[in-house]
Amino acid sequence: ETGFIVFQDSIESDGGGDYRAARHLKKHNKRNKMNVPMISDEYCRETMGVHTCDERHNVTYLQSTYPNIDFSMIETNDDTWWRKSYRETSSEIDERARKFLHRLFSRDYAASTAVGEDGVGKFVAVVSHSGFIQACVRALGGGAYYPANAEVVPLAVLRKKNDVVASLGVFGRSGGASV
Question: What are the coiled-coil residue ranges (predicted)?
Fold first, then answer.
């Protein structure tokens, strides 16, 4: 399925994968007065192809099932990226991660990432699968990093003017190691 991008002044919850977390967040949002905006983005998907678990539902189904999630960043209703007989390569995933990061930092998400009065941008939580997280870390210059199952991988990424990435810190299970 498609990964999620969650925008908020502070990161609270997530969604993604088989949408179990999204179902929890959907229920939680009924009580959440902060209304955490969530955007689903096709680029955040796990490695695509061959395995049917990596094929996404159509957007019509997703919108009716998860009405609190914005699916406008997905260009087609049906999954046109998944292939029955072709598995995406690591270099293709890396390219997709670079495109996603460029979209994120070039303000394709401008409506959801407004800068506060102090001039500081909001925090962004990207919730996805380990293969895509690994590709993002590589795209940011972090080298090989293998998240554990269900691991939260905080990345500190600084955007400076037109530079997509200025610095990267990966704070994983080692408790604060920089990459």
Answer: none
Interatomic CA distance for residues 94 and 162, integer angstroms: 21
This prediction has a pTM of: 0.68
Q: Under 8 Å CB-to-CB from 4, ≥6 apart: which residues?
A: 14, 15, 16, 22, 38, 39, 40, 41, 44, 69, 126, 127, 128
Task: State pLDDT tens for residues 93-102.
Answer: 999 998 888 8
User: Which residue, among 48, 60, 53, has the nearest Cα to 19 in the 3D structure?
Assistant: 53
Residue 166 DSSP label: E
Asked whether the beta carbons of 140 and 132 are under 8 A apart, the reply is no
Q: Report which residue type is found at 144.
A: A
Residue entry with tokens 């940011």:
140
Neighbours of 4 (CB within 10 A): 26
Sign of CA dihedral 107, 112, 113, 117: positive
Q: How far is CA 174 from the centre of its chain?
A: 23
Domain boundaries, the chain: 3-147
